[in-house]
Amino acid sequence: MSQRFEGTDNYVATEDLKVAVNAAIALERPLLIKGEPGTGKTVLAYEIAKALGSDLITWHIKSTTKATMGLYEYDAVSRLRDSQLGDERVKDIKNYIKKGKLWEAFEHQGRPVLLIDEIDKADIEFPNDLLQELDRMEFYVYETNETIKAAVRPIVIITSNNEKELPDAFLRRCFFHYIRFPDSETMQEIVDVHYPGIKNKL
Questions:
Q1: Could you tell me the pLDDT band of residue 194, with boundaries at 50, 70 and 90?
Q2: Is the confidence at residue 1, as pLDDT, over 50?
Q3: For the stretch 33-52, what's the b/e string if a residue is b when 16 or more beta carbons lie within 10 angstroms of its beta carbon?
Q4: What is the band of 39 on the pLDDT scale with cuts at 50, 70, 90?
Q5: Which of 14, 48, 143, 196 has the least C-beta neighbours within 10 A?
Q6: What pTM, to 2 d.p., does this model score?
Q7: What are the residues facing 148 on neighbouring strands?
Q8: Which residues have CB under 8 Å from 42's CB, separation 6+?
Q9: CB burial class (10 A; 0-12, 13-18, 19+) of residue 95?
Q10: Residue 109: CA atoms inside 13 Å, Cβ hemisphere, count?
């Protein structure tokens, strides 16, 4: 299937948005999408995945989210508890490692779309903490002494509501597009897509 995005039946994309999406896909760089809430940033990732026939992996960011959670989490407490109970699972540390969304995307068959949603909700260091992993598309798991590397670079879409400024080093590694609130012509197209035949008075 062609790796080009031309909008979909449900999503009206402006020309400059299509250019930004296709440049990010072709040059394998993350696409940072900014805009006011409700301008279709998150939905865009869903529509790109649908248009390209790719699976979508979604990582919703909260104020408490740490970058390492996208890689993996090691549950030492459960392992300690199981060792006290004499559980056989303790012998294999892999039983206590929970894969994060980046790990999931790196291991995925084919080329998935990875959505990192509302990155500006996290701590200011969060974007910088992901720089190396998004650049190299690999990371090291200390507990199991293995490197997880993406066979194919996922299409990475990052959204931001502009709640806080993102670090320059991070911005330099991304393509950037700001989704403006639709003008009257684009709004008419969007209405026509979702409500065909609606009365002009409305």
A1: very low
A2: no
A3: bbbeeebbbbebbbbbbbbb
A4: confident
A5: 196
A6: 0.85
A7: 139
A8: 115, 117, 159
A9: middle
A10: 0
Q: How far apart are CA 135 and CA 128, in angstroms?
A: 11
Distance CA 20, CA 3 (A): 13
Instruction: List the beta bridge partners of residue 113.
Output: 56, 155
Residue tagged 């031309």 (tokens): 6
Residue 127 has which token pair?
């974007």
Place of tokens 């507990």: 143
Element (H, E) at 10: none
Distances (CA, A) of 137 to 2, 19, 113, 120, 158: 23, 24, 14, 22, 15
SS3 88: helix
Q: Which residues of 13-32 are buried (b: 16+ CB within 10 A; e: fewer)?
A: bbeebeebbbebbeeebbbb
Per-residue CA distances from 70 to 1, 27, 94, 137, 179 (Å): 28, 23, 17, 12, 26
Q: For strands 72-74 and 97-99, give the pairing.
A: antiparallel
What are residue 149's phi and psi, to 5 degrees? -125, 140
